[in-house]
Amino acid sequence: MKKFRYLALEEQLRHKIKSQRFKExxxxxxxxxxxxxxxxxxxxxxxALQRLEAEGLIYAVPKSGYFVSQTLVQRNLPTKVTTxxxxxxxxxxxxxxxxxxxxxxxxxxPKEGAPHxxxxxxxxxxxxxxxxxxRPEQKSxxxxxxxxxxxxxxxxxELYRQRDTEILPESLCITAGCQHALFxxxxxxxxxxxxxxVESPAFYGVLQQIEHLGLEVIxxxxxxxxxxxxxxxxxxxxxxxxxxxIVTPNFSTPxxxxxxxxxxxxxxxxxQDKDFFIIEDDIYGELNFDNEPCLPIKAFDNCGRVILCGxxxxxxxxxxxxxxxxxxxxxxxIVQLKLITQLASPxxxxxxxxxxxxxxxxxxHTNQQRQRLKTQRDELLREIEKxxxxxxxxxxxxxxxxxxxxxxxxxDTQRSYRQLLTKGIVLTPGPLFSANGLYKxxxxxxxxxxxxxxxxxxxxxxxxxxxNQVV
Length: 471
Hints:
Protein name: PLP-dependent aminotransferase family protein
Largest sheet: 9 strands, mixed
GO molecular function, one term: transaminase activity
CATH topology of the largest domain: Aspartate Aminotransferase, domain 2
Mean pLDDT: 91
CATH superfamily of the largest domain: Type I PLP-dependent aspartate aminotransferase-like (Major domain)
Pfam family, one: Aminotran_1_2
Shape: globular
CATH architecture of the largest domain: 3-Layer(aba) Sandwich
Distance between the termini: 54 Å
Domain HTH gntR-type: 3-71
Keywords: Aminotransferase, DNA-binding, Pyridoxal phosphate, Transcription, Transcription regulation, Transferase
CATH class of the largest domain: Alpha Beta
Radius of gyration: 22 Å
Structural class: alpha/beta
């Protein structure tokens, strides 16, 4: 994997902005100065600046240069919470199953319903139906090969190639979604009683799997902008031997954080030094709002330490339970575990999906999806900032589906769950994202649905109910 020089400059400037070495409204060094100081071409410097501009960190003034955006620097991000220093067993609250039973993982008002199916999703359905009609006797009487159909694995490998990541189709195994892919990866790397490191706040689906497999978890603090705290991870690996580190580097749920390329490389080096696997959840990798290739950790993996997991459920359709695992060193074990837990993948869905990708429909769909989600993110965060900005902190993700809200210390989001249900509102409380019951005054909000008038009214009821909690 070649190292792109614009990424190094982009990361350097982002760090200076977020650490406020460049103050709000301050002009950053000129293009000429950046070229000379970093020994870069003008095109490379402009590419880095345009990416930071798309992220909203800087803005251009004609004939004057680039300046640091004021609103983003002023915004208070959620604070990092100190995590316990020792591993613990997981006990996922019953609340998780209640939320899932209401189909409300990413919607505070599920009764409002979703927007119409897009034209590209309709095209996908037609392609799946056409694939189902082709050779029906084959599909009815024979299982698919364990790894999954080769055309689909080739199509997925091509999607990663477009993200500057080389993956061989032979290293891919098709799964029943990303949750299944993560489950296979954890089983392949751990046995009962082992310790797994997770970013904190963590994806509650992973915590549920860790609980089921009888593993212990050690939480690693995560910055709402840059993700996993690698200093903390390194310190904890000195005292506790971990078998795997599960991380979502690109727009993780719930914070929407994005790990810089240098941190990805450092994580791989640490995994090699401490002998553990990195299980990468790349489910949001196609949902970056700056329309540039979004590098996974796997792009930097030259020692086989990264097990890459993903699916199409968040970027294309929840109904499409098709995911994948890519690993070099544990491929045979992953395929064996798939045979045990699923046996085979549905052939028609794979056939229709591979045609959908190779015809260019997938890229056209995700381009539209990214723009729609970016607009919905802006609408949601503007509403929060306008009405409750003085009473909460919130993340500002540049991709994915969700943001992380921190409320005053005395508020317990879980306490108001049942009360809000009586009004048809489903909130996702912070403690769901921790094995140690942290984040009681936090919640996840999603911008995966439009902020209709009904959802806007529900958002006001949600915040007012929480902020009016009696101490």
